[in-house]
Amino acid sequence: MEKPYDDENAGVKSSKVRFCDLRCENARQAKTDGLDGSCRTFVSLWCEKLQKHVVKNAPCELLFGARRPVTGL
To answer: What is the full DSSP assignment across 6-71?
Structure first.
């Protein structure tokens, strides 16, 4: 199966990008227990497939991988 993204470009190969929102069958409202308030810097959803919080309205992490920069701390 061809990947929907390009490793060289870190972009997608199509204009038909799937975004993380509540239209996705794997998306649920964010789980409030265990959140420390840092989620207020971005709006998150719970992804049932990945079993973690993901950034709402970002490209689907399940298809494209995590694209959010991390501090490495």
So the answer is: ETTTTEESSS-PPB-STTSTTEEEPP-TT--SGGGGS-EEEETTTTEEEETTSBPHHHH---S---
At 3, which amino acid appears? K
Q: For the whole model, what pTM was predicted?
A: 0.61
Domain boundaries, the chain: 17-64
Residue whose pair of structure tokens reads 């227990």 in the numeric block: 33
- pLDDT digit string, tens, across residues 2-23: 665 555 554 555 667 788 899 9
Q: Calculate the alpha carbon distances from 70 to 49, 52, 73 in Å.
A: 22, 16, 8
27 phi, psi to nearest 5 deg: -85, 140
pLDDT at 26 over 80: yes
